[in-house]
Design goal:
By secondary structure, the chain is of the alpha+beta class. Among the domains are: 92 residues, no CATH class; 31 residues; 163 residues, Sec63 N-terminal domain-like fold; 59 residues, DNA polymerase, domain 1. 47% of the residues lie in helices and 11% in strands. The protein contains 23 helices and 14 strands. The strands form 5 sheets. Strands 9, 10, 11, 13 and 14 form a 5-stranded antiparallel β-sheet that branches. The chain has a 3-stranded antiparallel β-sheet with strand order 5-6-12, with no helix packed on it. A hairpin with a 7-residue loop joins strand 13 and strand 14. Helix 7 packs across helix 8, helix 10 crosses helix 14 and helix 11 crosses helix 13. The chain is elongated. The protein starts with a strand and ends with a helix. It is a multi-pass membrane protein. One of its GO terms (biological process) is SRP-dependent cotranslational protein targeting to membrane. This is Translocation protein SEC63 homolog-like Protein. Keywords: Chaperone, Endoplasmic reticulum, Membrane, Protein transport, Transmembrane, Transmembrane helix, Transport.
Length: 749
C-alpha cells in the first residue's frame, strides 16, 4: 500500500489553519494592547495638589505625547479588523459540507449492519419517495447520497469492501493531508513563494534580532555600559567624593551625549543660551579640563542640573525641554552610581583594589536623588518642598522661642498655630499645603538584631553572621497633626546622629533587645486561669495515747467519746492537708507545663514569622508604593528608600544598600553582616534614606557586645553558605574595618 500526499484543493482545511493562527495572535493582542482609559478615582483626584507647578506638570504630561490619540485609534482599528476577519473565517468554515466525507450507507438508509437485500431495497424505496427531487419534500443532495448508499450495498463486492476497509472501492493508498492550498506548490508561483520566504527569514528576522542584540549589549539595566565604566573609573579615582563632584560625574553620563543617544537634541541656540545660563550659576567648575567633564554636552547637562536645583526658569522651547529629559533620567543613573560604589567597596574588602570608597561617597550619591526629585539644594530648608512656600515665607517659621525647621515639627503644631504661620495664604492655598503635608510619609523605624540558627540568638560571638531586622511602618504625616508628644525622628545630618538620637543612644534603654509581639490567637492565660491557690499547710503532730496509771481515775465514757471525736477531726484535717498539698503540687506542675507550652508557641510563632519574611523576600519586587509630591520632576515618582548598615567610626559600609520599592504600609528588611573577629563592644549605625524627600532620613545605633566563641565550636554553621563569597582575606580586613568603643575611649583619653 503506497503513500500519497494531498494538498487542500478546496481550501477548507487551510481556512481552519488561518482561523486558529489568527485567534492565537488576536486574543492576547486584544488583552495587552487594547488602549484603556484610566478611570479617575475621585478620592485620588481630591488628594492631588493644585498649586501652579503641579497643574503645569499635569498639563505637560497630558500633552507630552501628541501622537497618543492617533496611535490608540490605529491600534483599535487594527484589532477590530482582525476580529472581523476572524468572524468571517469562522462563518466560511461553518458553511463547509463534510457529510460526504463521513459517508456511512447503513446510517443513510437507516438499516442495521448486516441487513438483507430485501431490507435494503425496502428502505431505499421508502426514502426515495420522500427525497426524490420531483416530490414536494425532495432534496437533491440527500437523494444523491441515498442512491450512492444503495449502490454500495446492492453490489456484493462493494459491500464487502465497505465492511472490510470502510471504502466501497477497496483499500487505497495511505494519504497525508496538508493544510495548505495547492497553489503554494504550483510551479508558476514558486518564485513568489521563495521570495517571500527569503525576505521574512533571511532579511527581516536577522535584522530584528541583530538590532535587539546590539541594543541589549550596550545597556545594563537601562544604563549604557560606557556610562557604568565611567562611574567605576571616577569613583575609584576619588574615593572620598563630595556632592558637587558627584553632580559633575552624573552630568557626564553618556546618555546626555548625542553620539550615544539619538534622543538628545542639539540646537544652534545652545551656543547662546548655555553661556548665559552658566553666568547665573556659581561654582559650576565649567573650566575643568578633565575628560569627559570638559565636553560640551557634559557642561550643558551640569548647568541644567544646577539650574533645576536652584529652580531657575528656562526657555520653555529649548532648555526647558532638555531639562525635562535630563532630570527624568537622573534617578536611574543615580541608582547605578550607588551600585558602582557598592561594588568598589566589595572589591576593596576582597583586596582586589587598593582604594576603598568612603561611606560619605555612597551617601552623597543617595543624597543627590531627593535633591533631583524635589528640585532643591540640600542646604535649603525642607519646608520648601511644600506648595506656595518660598524663601520669603520662611521667616514666619523662624519663631524666636520655637523655630520650625522640619516638616515633622510643622505637622505637630496645633491647627491655629499652623494657620497663624501661613496667615498670608488664602484658604485654598492653605488647604493645598495641608493636603500635601498630610500625604507625606512618617516612618516608624524599628531595628533589632539576632544571630539566626544559633542556640542563643541574642548573643553575638566572634565571626557570627548577624541579621539585623529592620521594620519600616509607613503612616501619613496627617497622623501627627497637633500631636506634640511625638519626638523628632533620628534625622541624619552632616555630622551623623542628631541630638535626640544621641540622647536615645546614650540612655538606659537597650535598643538592641528584640521585642517580640505574639499574636492574639497565641496569647493564653498563664497558670491555666485564675485559681484560688491555698497555701501548703504542714501536717500537725498526732496526739499520743497515754494510758492511765493505777492511782489515777479512769476516763469517763463521755470523755472517751470526746477524745475519739477529737482524734477523728485531727485525722480528717491531716487528710485534707495532704490533699491540699497534692492539689498544689498538681497546679504547680500544670503551671510549668503551661509555661513550656507558651514558650513552644512563641518559638513556633517566631519560626513562622521568619519563614514568611523569607518567602516574601524571595518574591519579585514591586515598584508601587505612594506617589510623591514633586512638581519640579517631569514624571510621576513613587516613594523608595535605601536602608543599610555602616560603621561611622571607621567610615565603612557593612551591608549592601537595600532598595525598598514597595513600602505601602509595612516592610521588613533583613540586613546581614559578619561580626568582627575580635572580642569587644562595637557600635554600628542602621541608616534609612529617602530617594524622594529631603529631611526624612533616619538612623539608629546598635551596640554589639562581641564575645568569644565556645571552645567546642570551631566555626559557625552560617559560614557554610558564605564561604565561597567571603574568601580568605576577610580575617585581615576586620582588623581595620571596625573600631571598638574601648579604642574610641582610649583615643579620647
Amino acid at each position: 500500500m503506497g503513500q500519497k500526499f494531498q494538498y487542500d484543493e478546496s481550501g477548507s482545511t487551510f481556512f481552519y489553519f488561518l482561523l486558529s493562527f489568527l485567534a492565537l495572535i488576536l486574543i492576547p493582542a486584544t488583552i495587552y494592547y487594547w488602549p484603556r482609559e484610566k478611570k479617575r478615582d475621585p478620592e485620588e483626584e481630591s488628594k492631588k495638589c493644585h498649586c501652579p507647578p503641579c497643574i503645569k506638570k499635569r498639563e505637560f504630561q497630558k500633552n507630552a505625547d501628541p501622537w497618543k490619540g492617533p496611535k490608540n485609534f490605529l491600534i483599535k482599528l487594527v484589532i477590530i479588523i482582525g476580529w472581523l476577519l476572524l468572524l468571517l473565517l469562522a462563518y466560511k468554515v461553518s458553511q463547509f459540507d463534510y457529510e460526504m466525507a463521513n459517508f456511512d450507507p447503513y446510517e443513510i438508509l437507516g438499516i442495521p449492519l448486516g441487513a438483507s437485500q430485501a431490507e435494503i431495497k425496502k428502505a431505499y424505496r421508502r426514502l426515495s419517495l420522500i427525497l426524490h427531487p420531483d416530490k414536494d419534500t425532495g432534496n437533491e443532495k440527500e437523494f444523491m447520497k441515498l442512491s450512492k448508499a444503495y449502490q454500495a450495498l446492492t453490489d456484493d463486492e462493494a459491500r464487502k469492501n465497505w465492511e472490510k476497509y470502510g471504502n466501497p472501492d477497496g483499500p487505497g493508498a495511505m494519504s497525508f493531508g496538508i493544510a495548505l492550498p495547492s497553489w503554494i506548490v504550483e510551479k508558476e508561483n514558486s518564485v513568489w513563494v521563495l521570495g517571500l520566504y527569503g525576505l521574512v527569514f533571511m532579511v527581516a528576522l536577522p535584522i530584528v534580532v541583530g538590532t535587539w542584540w546590539y541594543r541589549s549589549i550596550k545597556f545594563t539595566d537601562q544604563v549604557l555600559l560606557d556610562t557604568t565604566q565611567m562611574y567605576y573609573y571616577f569613583f575609584h579615582k576619588t574615593p572620598n567624593m563630595v556632592l558637587k563632584r558627584v553632580i559633575m560625574i552624573l552630568a557626564a553620563s553618556l546618555e546626555f551625549n548625542k553620539k550615544h543617544n539619538s534622543e538628545i537634541k542639539e540646537r544652534d541656540l545652545d551656543n547662546e543660551e548655555v553661556p548665559q545660563l552658566i553666568k547665573k550659576l556659581p561654582n559650576l567648575s565649567e573650566k575643568n579640563k578633565e575628560a569627559p567633564l570638559c565636553y560640551t554636552y557634559s557642561i550643558k547637562a551640569r548647568a541644567i542640573i544646577h539650574a533645576h536645583l536652584s529652580r531657575i526658569p528656562l526657555n520653555p522651547n529649548t532648555l526647558e525641554e532638555d531639562r525635562r529629559y535630563i532630570i527624568a533620567k537622573c534617578p536611574t543613573l543615580i541608582q547605578e552610581q550607588v551600585n558602582c560604589v557598592n561594588q568598589l567597596i566589595v572589591l576593596a574588602y576582597n583586596r582586589r583594589i587598593q582604594r576603598l570608597p568612603t561611606i560619605e561617597t555612597i551617601e552623597n550619591c543617595m543624597k543627590l536623588c531627593p535633591m533631583i526629585v524635589q528640585g532643591l539644594w540640600e542646604f535649603k530648608s525642607p519646608l520648601l518642598q511644600l506648595p506656595y512656600i518660598n524663601e520669603d515665607n520662611l521667616k514666619y517659621f523662624m519663631n524666636k522661642k520655637k523655630p520650625i525647621r522640619s516638616l515633622q515639627q510643622f505637622a505637630q503644631l496645633k491647627g491655629d498655630e499652623r494657620r497663624n504661620i501661613l496667615r498670608n495664604f488664602s484658604e485654598q492655598e492653605y488647604d493645598n499645603v495641608m493636603k500635601v503635608l498630610g500625604n507625606m510619609p512618617y516612618i516608624d523605624f524599628q531595628v533589632k538584631y539576632e544571630v539566626m540558627d544559633d542556640e542563643n540568638p541574642t548573643e553575638v560571638t566572634v565571626g557570627a553572621i548577624v541579621t539585623v531586622i529592620v521594620t519600616l511602618t509607613r503612616k501619613p504625616m496627617s497622623t501627627l497633626f497637633g500631636d506634640e508628644t511625638v519626638k523628632d525622628n533620628n534625622l541624619i545630618n552632616e555630622n551623623g546622629v542628631d541630638g535626640d538620637a544621641k540622647e536615645a543612644a546614650a540612655g538606659d534603654t537597650d535598643p538592641q533587645v528584640p521585642v517580640i509581639k505574639r499574636p492574639a490567637w497565641l496569647k493564653q492565660k498563664r497558670g491555666g486561669g485564675k485559681k484560688n491557690k491555698k497555701p501548703v499547710k504542714q501536717p500537725k503532730a498526732t496526739a499520743a495515747v497515754v494510758k492511765p496509771k493505777a492511782d489515777e481515775s479512769p476516763v469517763p465514757s463521755s470523755d472517751k467519746k470526746k477524745v475519739k471525736e477529737e482524734k477523728s477531726k485531727e485525722e480528717e484535717s491531716e487528710e485534707s492537708d495532704v490533699s491540699d498539698a497534692e492539689t498544689n503540687d498538681k497546679s504547680s506542675e500544670d503551671d510549668s507545663v503551661q509555661k513550656s507550652q507558651n514558650e513552644d508557641d512563641d518559638q513556633e510563632w517566631e519560626k513562622f514569622k521568619k519563614l514568611h519574611e523569607r518567602e516574601k523576600a524571595l518574591q519579585g519586587k514591586s515598584k508601587t508604593s505612594h506617589p510623591v509630591h514633586s512638581p519640579y520632576f517631569p514624571n510621576d515618582k513613587q516613594e523608595y528608600w535605601w536602608t543599610y548598615i555602616c560603621d561611622r567610626k571607621s567610615r565603612t559600609l557593612l551591608t549592601v544598600p537595600h532598595y525598598v520599592t514597595s513600602l505601602i504600609d509595612q516592610e521588613v528588611v533583613h540586613l546581614k553582616f559578619t561580626a568582627p573577629n575580635w572580642v569587644g563592644v562595637y557600635t554600628f549605625t542602621v541608616c534609612l534614606r529617602s530617594d524622594s524627600y529631603i529631611g526624612f532620613d533616619q538612623q539608629k545605633d546598635i551596640k554589639l557586645d562581641v564575645k568569644a566563641a565556645p571552645a567546642e565550636i570551631t566555626e559557625h554553621p552560617q559560614w557554610e553558605d558564605l564561604e565561597e563569597e567571603e574568601g580568605s582575606a576577610k580575617e585581615d580586613a576586620h582588623e581595620s574595618e571596625y573600631t571598638t568603643d574601648e579604642d574610641l575611649s582610649e583615643d579620647d583619653d
